[in-house]
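User: Fold this; tokens only.

Assistant: Input:
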Amino acid sequence: MTERIPLGLLFALVLLLSACDSTPTTWRADCPPIERPPPMSLEAARHAHRLAARRTELRLREAAVPGSFLREMHGALDPERMAAGEVCLSELADRGEMLFEHEYSFTDGLGSHEASKAPAGPFRRVHFGAFGGPETISCPSCHWVGGPNGAGAETDNAFLTGDGERPGRGDARNPPALLGLGVVETLAREMTEELQQQRARLQKNGKGEARLIAKGVDFGVLRINDKGELSMASVRGVDGDLVVKPFGWKGTLARFGDFSSEALQLHMGIQSDVLVAKGSAELTGGGKDADDPDGDGIRGEFRSGPFSAMLVHLALFEMAKVEPLVQSLQIEPAALGLLPPTTTSFAADFQRGRKHFHALGCADCHLPMMVLKDPVLKLDGLPPVDLSATMQQPGLKYDANLDGYPVWLFSDLKRHDMGKINQAQYVHNGVSRNDYLTPRLWGVADSAPYLHDGRAPSFDYAIAGHDGEGRKSRAAYAALGHEEKGALRVYLMSLRRASRVIVP
């Protein structure tokens, strides 16, 4: 009698074998380019209308035959063909967008056996320990503020590591905007490489100390003691492995793929093969069936092919821009029944606000710009993706003077002590309860509310919520006059997303 190998373990073995194969793969040469019409063009409007019509059709098909959409995706997205580059990147990005927008049901594996049978309904915004909710059926239901893949309102908060019932017993977390995730991961990867190279040089010397600096960000001092052992006592804002982890409010994950697989589980109870392969019973459930640890009767809920396609969509999604309002509308207002366009230029306020942003110390943590050297993103199970050639606009643009791609991120991708007023109730993945990753402020004009728990409805409230290492900047802002505070707000309002046509 042969013993059946769990799907999760089988998937882990496939990944291991793929990692051992050193043969480089590339995308098919005959693939069509990804359509990227200008965001406010007529073609962009037509494209948005076509997507809306497709969403309606898919919802009707799903209503007629529940589960048909995900089954079709599992059949169409073969991991072996994808790894060999035989499926075009444009197709993966398109299907990934559909998967991101899909409304998941019990037929797809939504929730768990317990959630599907609960008399009060399947949802709980207060999570039950590490297992999660579920509290929703789709990604856009929480990521919508400011446009597609945006942030969430305060009412979209999840309460992590709770008791399943009382909000006060969980750590409130507000959904972040999902902008430029591929760029963020590649930046963090380059920072990690810099830090680990500095550690390797110190170890080679066998004595002394090294100031750990990556892309201008100071992570403290690494030392070798008299016994030849590394001392992390003076290293700040990064774990002992010196891996920069830019995802999660606590900065606990290095790759947005891990962030995505956890989010599917925590917020919808949709279990990816990636997550099941890790075998964490605390996160996926302790069911007896290793292929169905949440016990809902659905195996292979979100297989590796569709999961990789969703990651492509997220990787190629737009970045934000830095642009003050300096000119009036280019459309005749009478034709649209609008008020006359403003002729006010906020360029002077923008310049003053930028100076205050630096003078107040905001830029010490919210580092405005980093330079990305290598725009190639490596995703498991796919050929390398050149973000500079494939991203939705605004995207990466090479600057010869910088010998790289400037990324106006407004974060140092480092954790900081934000004081007791922001203290979490629980320790998450070993990170101190006071420590939080510096939020990326790109697109901040379109992502209110602010702070990790969404309690700040405006910039003033967000700044007032700074404590710990942010206390000095908070006090400096409070001391500014009314007009100077306004200039800083104008500067922050210039960190925004590109306008684009959206059809619900």
